[in-house]
Design a protein that fits this description.
disordered N terminus
């Protein structure tokens, strides 16, 4: 067995790994087969387990609220099959320059007024050059000074860049694994799975909180959905925030036309994420626009306790804050 403090790629038929030297030895190592077994439970049994774990670790009626802003939209050189920001795909997303500092600050002020506690800034880059990073560092510092938690998703990080983000006041760095390693090559070819793990390792090395999850409904199997969760849950220190996204299909991208995932399978994924990562915030992320209120309520019951507020997630639709507030009121949920 490989023992390391860095994230480790685990095949979908792999056995449980031993905890690394930096792990708490009480953390359970999840096999993919164990997680598949969770998916296969009767729905009510799975929900009961997820609720039990959730209530043991969190306030069951509280949801953390973040807002996501695209500070640099379009023109990305990557070939992620789900992403309308890739320059090679013919979508309606245009290549736009980096936003001005004052405009980002104004958006953060509006997010705070709407009740968001974390402000996330996303840029469509393969990875930031130093000249790109400099203005983003100023944005992070300004947003942090407003009393908001800060998060950024800027692509792959080079040596030294995580340190700069930390010094600027960054609280969270988002870098999704997207899917299981066995399915990854069907979705992306311009960066490797190890590239993603290396960036997460750089973030962890400077003690920035990790936000990492994936996208389901891209044509992957249930085993591969379980494989994604195994990758996350078996990290030496699982991500503090785990966004679970339902593929939002955009015309012009390779994954447009993929068979839609059943919503109850999505709820099962949320529940399995909660059980395998008890102390992580599980974020109900992209795809909520297509979900009826009842399905979203089931996701919260299954252990989702974080959402994105705002009518847009980077470039795709998201429920308006007023709609989310109405749903929270119906469910007796408090936003934090």
């Amino acid at each position: 067995m490989l023992e390391t403090s860095s994230p480790v790629v685990i095949n979908t038929d792999g056995l449980k790994t031993k905890p690394s030297a930096s792990c708490d030895s009480t953390i359970e190592r999840w096999r993919v087969a164990d997680i598949v077994a969770l998916f296969e439970l009767p729905f009510s049994d799975l929900m009961y387990q997820a609720q039990t774990v959730h209530r043991a670790n969190f306030d069951a009626n509280a949801v953390q609220v973040s807002t996501l802003l695209s500070i640099k939209t379009g023109g990305c050189s990557e070939d992620c099959g789900y992403c309308p920001q890739a320059a090679r795909y013919h979508t309606e997303v245009e290549d736009e320059p980096l936003m001005q500092l004052q405009d980002v600050v104004a958006a953060a002020q509006e997010a705070k007024a709407n009740g968001a506690s974390r402000f996330c800034m996303g840029a469509a880059w393969r990875g930031p050059k130093q000249r790109d990073l400099e203005p983003v560092l100023k944005m992070i510092a300004e947003v942090k000074a407003m009393g908001l938690e800060t998060c950024a998703t800027l692509g792959m990080l080079k040596d030294g860049q995580a340190e700069q983000l930390k010094d600027a006041g960054l609280d969270y760095y988002n870098h999704n694994l997207d899917t299981a390693p066995e399915y990854y090559g069907d979705v992306i070819s311009t960066r490797t799975y190890q590239d993603r793990l290396d960036t997460l390792d750089r973030v962890r090395s400077v003690d920035i909180n990790v936000c990492s999850g994936g996208i389901i409904g891209m044509g992957e199997s249930r085993n591969q959905r379980a494989g994604l969760l195994a990758q996350l849950a078996n990290m030496a220190r699982p991500p503090e925030s785990v966004p679970i996204n339902l593929l939002t299909q955009v015309e012009g991208t390779p994954l447009h036309g993929t068979e839609s995932l059943d919503h109850l399978e999505f709820v099962r994924t949320i529940a399995a994420a909660r059980i395998t990562m008890p102390s992580s915030y599980v974020r109900l992320s992209a795809g909520r626009q297509s979900m009826p209120e009842g399905i979203q309520a089931l996701c919260f019951l299954a252990g989702a306790n974080s959402i994105f507020y705002g009518e847009k997630l980077l470039t795709t639709p998201n429920p308006e804050a007023s709609v989310d507030k109405q749903l929270f009121a119906k469910l007796g949920i408090n936003q934090i």
